[in-house]
Design brief:
With about 100 residues, this protein is α+β, with helices and mostly antiparallel strands. The protein has helices at about 15-20, 25-35, 70-80, and strands at about 1-10, 35-45, 50-55, 95. The two termini are about 15 Å apart. This is L-rhamnose mutarotase. Keywords: Carbohydrate metabolism, Cytoplasm, Isomerase, Rhamnose metabolism.
């Protein structure tokens, strides 16, 4: 199943967000892959600082792994540059697919 959601980046943090994801922790990548998450892309709308994420799932959503130590650590690491909930998880908003073309 393919899902999409949006998140919000704080103004002025595009380069830092990209840098942190370019250097994604190997243990975080492994966690995602082990839980069936693949083909994961995040796009930025610079006009609104909205991040659009799309991922293929064969199991859990990346947001469903919040009880894991590594994801909690990643969320804390990212909390200074994104809009977050009280537990540092990014505020996410599901998006409905209205068109798809293979």
């Amino acid at each position: 199943m393919k899902i999409a959601f949006k998140m919000k980046l704080k103004p002025g943090f595009k380069a830092e967000y990209k840098k942190r994801h370019d250097e994604i922790w190997p243990e975080l990548s492994a966690l995602l892959k082990e839980n069936g998450i693949s083909d994961y892309s995040i796009f930025l709308d610079e006009e609104t600082n909205t991040l659009f994420a799309v991922q293929q799932q064969n199991g859990s959503s990346s947001q469903d792994l919040g009880s894991t130590r590594i994801l909690q650590k990643w969320w804390a690491y990212m909390a200074d540059i994104m809009e977050t909930n009280a537990d540092n998880s990014p505020k996410t908003f599901p998006l409905e697919m209205v068109f798809h073309l293979d």
